[in-house]
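INFO  loader      accepted 1 record
INFO  loader      residues=298
INFO  predictor   begin
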Amino acid sequence: MQRLAMDLRMLSRELSLYLEHQVRVGFFGSGVGLSLILGFSVAYAFYYLSSIAKKPQLVTGGESFSRFLQDHCPVVTETYYPTVWCWEGRGQTLLRPFITSKPPVQYRNELIKTADGGQISLDWFDNDNSTCYMDASTRPTILLLPGLTGTSKESYILHMIHLSEELGYRHRHMFVKQVDMDHVMKAKSIREFDKRFTSVMFGYQTIDDYYTDASPSPRLKSVGIPVLCLNSVDDVFSPSHAIPIETAKQNPNVALVLTSYGGHIGFLEGIWPRQSTYMDRVFKQFVQAMVEHGHELS
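INFO  predictor   done
INFO  writer      dumping tokens
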């Protein structure tokens, strides 16, 4: 019995040493581990290219606007490749503020006081060094309105301003603040937030009145200028079932670009998406198309 126990201990020790050697040396050196890694990589690449990377759905109410976008804003028909290690909507939404860079932008602030006691803060990027539009009176102005709780310091706003600077334009950012944020921040749901902040801020008597009036669906039919809307169907705040696709099809001035992934203003792409996102490319191409070729839609 003692000899058997000794033999078992020796066998266990030898087996442990062998496995340790295989993991430390043979796992990669023998080709077994390399084959496993290669096989997994190929399988993941196949899954990514077949199920994740897709062309966005372009929904338009008129053939003229559709052709215009395909000619001057081709990014809306190209395959969108979400970041391979972060393609899911919630991940894109949460990581975008931390991953993307913040281009340096120097603003000129203009504060406008309104008759009802409120105030409007305009952050101007004048782009006086523009070589394309040296005369400020003819320089195209881009108006950027950040999200409800956003400011002109948001990374996606700064990237849009940086892209507009490259095109020679100037971005006018607008942000209004006139509520008790301490009370607002105690909200435990989006509905409570809208009840305490949004509906009160814009003078609605009830939250339902705000939701009814704020819905874009009844107004899409009345849009009289070309409007391009980018939305991901996995957006956690604006899910696919809330997108008015059928209504958009009834107006020749409206186009929807719907990506399969991208989250809420995420749209990360590339291995390490620091400098640019899919949304940035859509913004740059569409703005440039409207400024330089918008007359084709007249």
